[in-house]
Recover the amino acids of this structure.
């Protein structure tokens, strides 16, 4: 479909191949005949913030995809810290994008957020003749609203909304992760309904084929409950720990291993909390699982999977890839009752009022006590992925977005 056309994909806050959405996009485009080039931060550890062994600013080939890594000065806290991160990242990305442009003019520049700082690049390369696609991953103003309060928070929120608007208006085509984001693009960004398409975060079927459970992963306990995802302040891990405390202390269940897969800003804090409670025999933190086969074994061994996100300005509109991955493995889900989570899982999940940690814990136990219900919900979820939500279904809208961008006046 591309006739060898070139696309430059840019992201500031994550990197391939770990960023599943962007990795799916670039490999899909590669397989369709495009020549994708990616600019993204170098791989870093959440804990040490030390860059992996890569050559900054020089192209690296990853499975036929040209990648330019830059060193990201990751913000730790405070407005100044984030300002330093964003400005240094914007400088690095601009410099690398110009190097790519000089070597080979790209047909499309594909900008991923957050943050919404890349509209500068969109304006520059739009003037030079490239088409601009905005890949709307997160609601940056809502991220700011969750992070900051008071007068400074309101000022930053207003600034973020201006930057978001400029990003929408710079793009020829916007791709949204769900219908809620699409509505925001049309209302806040004044984007025409013809210029915004939904490309959901669906798992690739080939990457999530159910495998045989591995009883050894349960570490001698009868049941396993699994969380798989980022461990940030807005991801509900702290709330999940409260639910675990309720299950163990109030309900007296000591036959369940809670396996929390992933990494992030609060992983260490969560481990310290578990150790303080004396629950280390019941809560396991294997870290971020890079091995896809091992991740599948963990998920297939789990009896129940969880998505405990609190209700925040961001979470209320967002889709969580972990839910679809659980469903792809045929697992029942206990989830916070959020609009887009309910759309994704439908009858494959039990829903709990966000923040009600006791009810969340009780829902987990309810499923563990009903193997027939678990099996039924798991089959519903698996079928929904195969029929509607897998990446194989979503990629058609990605192709459509690129076609519209190239044809855009």
């Amino acid at each position: 479909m591309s006739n060898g056309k070139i696309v430059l994909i840019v992201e500031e806050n994550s990197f391939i191949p770990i960023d599943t959405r962007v990795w799916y996009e670039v490999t899909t485009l590669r397989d369709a005949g495009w020549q994708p080039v990616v600019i993204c931060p170098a791989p870093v550890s959440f804990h040490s913030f030390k860059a992996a062994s890569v050559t900054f600013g020089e192209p690296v080939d990853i499975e036929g995809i040209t990648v330019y890594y830059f060193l990201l000065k990751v913000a730790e806290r405070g407005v100044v810290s984030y300002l330093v991160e964003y400005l240094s990242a914007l400088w690095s990305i601009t410099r690398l994008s110009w190097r790519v442009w000089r070597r080979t003019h790209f047909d499309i520049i594909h900008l991923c957020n957050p943050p919404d700082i890349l509209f500068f690049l969109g304006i520059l390369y739009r003037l030079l003749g490239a088409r601009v696609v905005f890949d709307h991953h997160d609601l940056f103003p809502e991220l700011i609203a969750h992070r900051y309060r008071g007068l400074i928070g309101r000022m930053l929120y207003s600034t973020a909304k201006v930057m978001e608007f400029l990003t929408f208006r710079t793009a020829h085509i916007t791709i949204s992760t769900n219908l809620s984001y699409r509505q925001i693009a049309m209302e806040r960004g004044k984007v025409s309904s013809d210029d915004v398409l939904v490309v959901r975060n669906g798992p690739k079927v080939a990457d999530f084929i159910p495998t045989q459970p591995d009883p050894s992963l349960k570490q001698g306990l009868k049941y396993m409950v699994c969380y798989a995802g980022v461990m940030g302040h807005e991801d509900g891990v702290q709330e999940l720990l409260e639910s675990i405390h309720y299950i163990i202390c109030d309900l007296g269940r000591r036959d369940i291993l809670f396996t929390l897969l992933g990494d992030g800003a609060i992983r260490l804090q969560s481990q310290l909390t578990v150790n303080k409670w004396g629950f280390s025999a019941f809560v396991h933190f294997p870290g971020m699982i890079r091995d896809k086969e091992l991740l599948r074994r963990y998920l297939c061994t789990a009896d129940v999977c969880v998505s405990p996100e609190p209700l925040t300005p961001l979470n209320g509109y967002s889709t969580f890839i972990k839910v679809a991955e659980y469903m792809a493995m045929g697992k029942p889900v206990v989830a916070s009752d959020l609009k887009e989570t309910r759309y994704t899982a439908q009858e494959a999940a039990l829903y709990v009022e966000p923040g009600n940690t006791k009810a969340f814990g009780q829902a987990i136990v309810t499923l563990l006590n009903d193997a027939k219900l678990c099996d039924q919900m798991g089959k519903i979820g698996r079928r929904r992925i195969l029929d509607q939500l897998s990446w194989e279904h979503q990629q058609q809208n990605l192709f459509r977005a690129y076609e519209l961008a190239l044809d855009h006046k």
Q: What stands out?
A: The longest strand covers residues 35-41.
